[in-house]
Amino acid sequence: MSAAVLFACILYAKSADLNSDKQALLAFPASLPHGRKLNWSSTTPVCTSWLGVKCTPDNSRVHTLCLPALGLFGPIPLDTLGKLDAQEVLSLRSNRLTVELPPDVGSIPSLHSLYLQHNNLCGIIPTTLSSSLTFLDLCYNTFDGEIPLSVQNLTGLTAILLQNNSLSGPIPDLRLAK
Ligand SMILES: *[C@@H]1O[C@H](CO)[C@@H](O)[C@H](O)[C@H]1NC(C)=O
Ligand SMILES: *[C@@H]1O[C@H](CO)[C@@H](O)[C@H](O)[C@H]1NC(C)=O
Ligand SMILES: *[C@@H]1O[C@H](CO)[C@@H](O)[C@H](O)[C@H]1NC(C)=O
Q1: What is the Å distance from ligand 2's center to 100 Cα?
Q2: Going by CA atoms, what residue is nearest to atom 3 of ligand 3?
Q3: Can you tell me where the transmembrane regions are (predicted)?
Q4: Higher local confidence (pLDDT), 13 or 23
């Protein structure tokens, strides 16, 4: 393979990644009512002009998605945000999200900060949470059941906020990172 072809392949692989992030993002508001308008469009650049979206320094992947208090209403659709597999920070706090937290979102391997406080999420806290998590805020929702023992395995965790839910059972022995 010539250097030029190889270079073209690398470029293609990169744009395919950002493009798949873009498709995953576009599918999210498409299946979720929201109060305020998201100015996301397939014709504008994701990394520099989409509300709430930040990319990696080389603009090759979506790194952060922050959509607080946008009136997002209803269940977080499966197979949308969970596909953003370079994402490190996700905030959907202070919306009106309902039903459970899809397991594909909490388990994104690169995810280190997840802010979902002040919603109406319910059901159990998924047992398969990303081992990269350092900050998890689920307070002011209606999660029930027990706190999964698997949180003990989140060795990088510095804070986990769970107040104002309907959780029961023992509090796992957390070994929070300093
Ligand atoms: C979308 O909104 C953000 C924040 O208000 C703004 O910075 C950005 O330029 C807007 N993008 C477009 C395409 O209008
Ligand atoms: C924690 O991790 C260990 C090693 O990977 C695994 O054997 C164990 O089942 C995990 N515990 C929980 C509660 O997920
Ligand atoms: C938080 O939980 C406490 C105790 O159950 C309750 O009294 C309070 O109203 C709750 N606050 C909110 C904002 O839901």
Answers
A1: 23
A2: 164
A3: none
A4: 23
User: Residue 175 domain-assigned?
Assistant: no
Phi and psi torsions of 159, nearest 5°: -155, 140
Question: Tokens 């070994």 sit at which residue?
Answer: 175
Residue 154 CA to ligand 3 center (angstroms) comes to: 28
- The amino acid that residue 171 corresponds to is I
pTM attached to this predicted model: 0.87
Q: Give residue 2's pLDDT band: very low, low, confident or very high (50, 70, 90).
A: low
Write the CATH number for 120: 3.80.10.10
Residue 89, H or E segment = strand 89-91
pLDDT, position 9: 52
Is 74 within a domain? yes
Structure-block tokens of residue 9: 């392949």
Question: Into how many domains does the chain fold?
Answer: 1
Confidence of residue 37 (pLDDT cuts 50, 70, 90): confident
What's the 54 CA to ligand 1 centre distance in angstroms? 12
